[in-house]
Amino acid sequence: MKNENTYILGIESSCDDTAASVIHNGVVLSNVVANQKIHEEFGGVVPELASRAHQQNIVPVVHQALRRANIDKKQLSAIAFTQGPGLMGSLLVGTSFAKSLAMGLGVPLIAVNHMQAHILAHFIKAEGQAIPSFPFIALTISGGHTQIVKVTDYFDMEILGETIDDAVGEAFDKSAKILGLPYPGGPLIDKYAQLGNPHAYKFTKPRVGDLEFSFSGLKTAILYFIERETKNNPNFISEHLNDICASIQFTIVDYLMDKLKNAVSHTGITQIAIGGGVSANSRVRKALKDAETDLGWITYIPRFEYCTDNAAMIAIVGELKYRNELFSENNIVAKARMKW
User: Fold this and answer.
1) Residue 221 counted as domain residue
2) Cβ–Cβ contacts within 10 Å for residue 1, how many?
3) pLDDT in the model for residue 144
4) Would you say the C-alpha torsion 156, 160, 163, 164 has a positive or negative sign?
5) What is the pLDDT of residue 40?
6) CA pair distance 13, 89, nearest whole angstrom
7) Separation of alpha carbons 277 and 309, rounded Å
8) pLDDT for res 39
9) What is the distance in angstroms between the CA of the first residue and the CA of the last residue of the chain?
10) Nearest CA among 179, 183, 286 for reference residue 243
11) What is the DSSP secondary structure assignment for residue 124, as one 8-state letter?
12) Is the pLDDT of residue 221 over 90?
C-alpha cells in the first residue's frame, strides 16, 4: 500500500460541467468547475453541445486547477478520471485527456465510478467536516440517479434500492418546467418552497417496493393538477407559486425519507450519508438533521461544492485507489452505463 505524499489530479466530465481538482493527502488544494450555460435555452443538456464545450474547457480548467494548487504537473502522483456513468461524448473527452496526460507524465491512470465518487466525497478532509465510519447507508440523489447504497468499505458497496424509472433530480426539473420555470428548475423550486406552505396541496407518493423509487407517476400527477387548476384560474401558478413548490418539495423529500427509514429498518445501520446534486436541497438537508434528533441517526451532509458534479470527489477516490495500487490500463474505455 502506498503511503507517501500524493498529489492526485481528478478530472470530471460526465455531463455538462468540466471540472478538475488537485488533492494532496486527502486535502483539496483546488477544485475548478466550468459550467456550460448554453443548455439553459434548450431546457436541458444537449449531449453534442456538451461534448464540444468539454473539448474547449478541459485544457484551461486543468491548467487552472494546477495553478491554484501551486504545483507543477510533474509533481502529480496519478491522474484520476470519471469513466462513467454519464453522457458518452462528454466522458470520451475526459477519458482521452486523462489517458494522454498520464501517459505523457508516466504516472498511473485511475478510473473512477461517478456515483461511487459522490459517496466517497465524504472522505475529503476539511476542517469541521465529520467523516463516516463503516458501515453506513448512502442516499445518492441527482438528475440521473436515485439510489440507496450500503457502504461496507471504500470499494465494497451494494445497491439496496434504486429508481425504477426517473431520477429525483429530473422530477424536480420537470416539475419546474411544468410551472414555467427556467432550467435547471430544481434549485428554483427549493427557493420558492421556502416561502410557501408545504401542506397547501397534497400529492400521492408513488407505491413501489420498500427500497425502490418511482417518480414518473408523481410528475404526471403534478402535470394534471396544474392543467386542472389553470383551466379554472389562468393565474393559478403565479398566484400560488410558493405553495405549489413547497408542496411538491415536501412530497418528494418525505418520500425519500420514507425509503431511508425502510433502509435503516432492514439493515439496522443508522449512519446516513447523502450525495449528488439534490443533496444541496434545503429541505433534504433539514430532514436529515431532524432525523438525528427524532430518530437517533448520525447523518453526514456534504459541503455544497461537493454536492453537484465536481472533480474533488474524483480526486479523493483516485487517492484511495492510488494508495491501494488499484490502477487502470491505458486501453480502458469510457462507459455511459456502469455496473457496480
Assistant:
1) yes
2) 6
3) 84
4) positive
5) 58
6) 9
7) 7
8) 42
9) 23
10) 179
11) S
12) yes
H helix count then E strand count, the chain = 9, 10
Q: Are 50 and 309 in contact (CB under 8 A)?
A: no
The rounded distance, in Å, linking the Cα atoms of 113 and 157 is 12
Same domain, 119 and 155: no
Please tell me the distance from the alpha carbon of residue 84 to that of residue 102, in angstroms, as a whole number.
Answer: 18
**CA-to-CA distance for 276 and 299, rounded, in angstroms?**
15
- If we measure between CA atoms, which residue out of 227, 190, 224, 184 comes closest to residue 204? 224
Domain count, the chain: 2
Joined grid coordinates for residue 337:
452505463
Q: Which of 123, 178, 166, 175 has its CA nearest to residue 141?
A: 166
In this structure, are 170 and 242 located in the same domain?
yes
CA distances from 90 to 18, 54, 58, 116, 118 (A): 9, 7, 11, 18, 18
Residues with Cβ within 8 Å of 190's Cβ and at least 6 positions away in sequence, in order, are 245, 249, 281, 282, 283
- Same domain, yes or no: 94 and 208: no
Interval 71-107: pLDDT, tens: 999 999 999 999 999 899 999 999 999 999 999 999 9
* Same domain for 226 and 291: yes
**What would you measure as the largest C-alpha separation in the chain, in angstroms?**
68
Instruction: Write the DSSP string, 102-121.
Output: HHHHT--EEEEEHHHHHHHG
CB 119 within 8 A of CB 106: no
The pLDDT-based confidence of 36 (bands split at 50, 70, 90) is low
What is the mean predicted confidence (pLDDT) over 305-322? 94
The per-residue pLDDT for range 152-171, each reduced to its tens digit, is 999 999 999 999 999 999 99
Answer yes or no: are the C-beta atoms of 193 and 248 closer than 8 Å: yes
Claim to verify: residue 166 and residue 265 sit in the same structural domain = yes
pLDDT digits (tens, 9 = 90+) for 47-69: 667 778 778 889 999 999 999 99
Domain-embedded: residue 264: yes
